[in-house]
Design goal:
The chain is an alpha+beta fold. It has 2 domains: 36 residues; 98 residues, Ribosomal protein S6/Translation elongation factor EF1B (Alpha-Beta Plaits, 2-Layer Sandwich), CATH 3.30.70. 49% of the residues lie in helices and 22% in strands. The longest helix has 40 residues.
């Protein structure tokens, strides 16, 4: 059958080779070339968008959260003995709690970055608990580092409880 065709065998070989290349391109090489071009295009877009690790929104939120945490600890240490204690006394009075003692600043409670102030309160359990919650949520007076709850004995009647005492240690950034 091929012998009867008036076409030269060289032309048939070239046509068959081209047909074979066209079929192999459609079945195998086309998808590979498209994937390679897509990869190259996405890689150039990635290079143009600079560093994706830098996320200004995330860094801004993180900075705001850290500022809020620092604001809880910060207080004006020079005015602590006057303004802050009067604020704390106002909160204590509002909660029906008695501020019994503000000891003199102890040098051992001061570090390079923090000052720790001790305050003693007396009252009933629920009032002292509300006071501790209010002091924790109030900005600008420091934050509670430690709470010590103890039972006070009455001087006149030792058998009867004298109430509950709360010793608070407030931590303040210098």
């Amino acid at each position: 059958m091929l012998k009867k065709l008036p076409i030269k065998k060289e032309y048939l070989l070239i046509a068959g080779t081209l047909l074979l290349l066209l079929i192999s391109y459609r079945l195998a090489f086309k998808n590979t070339i498209e994937a390679w071009q897509s990869h190259r295009q996405l890689q150039t877009q990635l290079d143009q968008s600079s560093d994706l690790n830098y996320q200004p929104g995330y860094l801004e939120r993180k900075n705001n959260n850290l500022d809020q945490l620092i604001a809880l600890y910060k207080a004006d240490t020079t005015a602590f003995r006057s303004n802050i204690i009067s604020t704390i006394a106002g909160i204590a009075e509002r909660e029906n709690v008695k501020l019994t003692d503000v000891p003199v600043q102890d040098v051992s409670f001061q570090t390079g970055q923090f000052i720790i102030e001790k305050l003693d309160f007396e009252g009933n359990y629920f009032s002292l608990l509300k006071l501790a919650n209010d002091l924790q949520s109030t900005n600008g007076i420091g934050t509670i580092r430690e709470e010590t709850w103890r039972l006070k004995k009455s001087q006149s009647n030792p058998d009867n409880g004298g109430g509950l005492a709360l010793d608070l240690y407030l931590e303040i950034i210098k």
